[in-house]
DNA sequence: TTTTGTTTTGCACTCCAGTTGCATTATTTT
DNA sequence: AAAATAATGCAACTGGAGTGCAAAACAAAA
């Protein structure tokens, strides 16, 4: 499974994620590339990028979908259990290299943890 | 601001949250009380309950809204910075009394943290 | 390079959580 | 009881996300 053909859409989206490490929301991509491709194509290409282990996805503060580059993932091995940070001032979203500290919960098994931090980013931090 | 009038809808929803400490999703409430009130009313009453510091809200794993009782909050003073736990087996969602451990991020100010843990709850933990 | 088989795309639709405007109804105040 | 105000129901709308299918693009074979 995964990307097979190097189409125009695939190249454009791939280039966009290579430009920077920041996460990008789906709605941003749809708006940004509305002249180049259909939103359905964007959803489908992102889906495949995730299958391939090239991108991972998560939900921002409104429950909307964001994508960011993986770090050493493959189609068979995803490990993206890191926190994400959304700046309340400029809206930028980043992956944080920090470890997630899972609190000890008696009689429960924790499999997945989603952590979204909000505040001021490096640029907006005065 | 907040709830002023004791209407039938307000009483029904209040009673529902008094029954148990577990969180309830908006869609569950809409389905459960479809015979008693309109979904718009449910959204509006929950909104006010949150304003009043009686309930707090958060997003579940699909980005859909959940509500749960606050613990000592008021309209002027909300402090609901605890993690939430969603059971992947039975779907139940709870507030966790544990503290959120915010990782140290250089040059960033963290104001809010959303933590959603997923796994097996007490009942589903074999 | 042309033909062939397969994948990808665009389009028009559907779905669903959540929201809004407005007329009607319920509650509170006088 | 009447007046003032707040809550409700309804229907329509919004916006993110997903689908089915015919047309277009691509890769590989001829
Ligand atoms: Mn990330
Ligand atoms: Mn909670
Ligand atoms: Zn910023
Ligand atoms: Zn469970």
UniProtKB/TrEMBL annotation, chains A, B:
<protein>
    <submittedName>
        <fullName>Fur family transcriptional regulator, ferric uptake regulator</fullName>
    </submittedName>
</protein>
<dbReference type="InterPro" id="IPR002481">
    <property type="entry name" value="FUR"/>
</dbReference>
<keyword id="KW-0479">Metal-binding</keyword>
<dbReference type="InterPro" id="IPR036388">
    <property type="entry name" value="WH-like_DNA-bd_sf"/>
</dbReference>
<dbReference type="InterPro" id="IPR036390">
    <property type="entry name" value="WH_DNA-bd_sf"/>
</dbReference>
<dbReference type="GO" id="GO:0046872">
    <property type="term" value="F:metal ion binding"/>
</dbReference>
<feature type="binding site">
    <location>
        <position position="87"/>
    </location>
    <ligand>
        <name>Zn(2+)</name>
    </ligand>
</feature>
<keyword id="KW-0862">Zinc</keyword>
<dbReference type="GO" id="GO:0003700">
    <property type="term" value="F:DNA-binding transcription factor activity"/>
</dbReference>
<dbReference type="Pfam" id="PF01475">
    <property type="entry name" value="FUR"/>
</dbReference>
<feature type="binding site">
    <location>
        <position position="90"/>
    </location>
    <ligand>
        <name>Zn(2+)</name>
    </ligand>
</feature>
């Amino acid at each position: 499974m995964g990307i097979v053909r190097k189409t125009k859409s695939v190249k454009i989206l791939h280039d966009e994620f290579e430009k920077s490490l920041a996460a990008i929301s789906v709605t941003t991509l749809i708006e940004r590339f509305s002249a180049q491709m259909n939103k359905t194509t964007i959803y489908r290409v992102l889906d495949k990028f995730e299958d391939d282990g090239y991108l991972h996805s998560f939900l921002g503060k409104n429950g909307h979908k964001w994508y960011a580059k993986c770090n050493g993932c493959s189609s068979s091995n995803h490990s993206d259990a890191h926190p994400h940070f959304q700046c309340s001032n400029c809206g930028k979203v980043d992956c944080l290299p920090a470890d997630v500290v899972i609190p000890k919960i008696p009689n429960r098994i924790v499999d997945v943890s989603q952590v979204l931090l909000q505040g001021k980013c490096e640029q907006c931090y005065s």
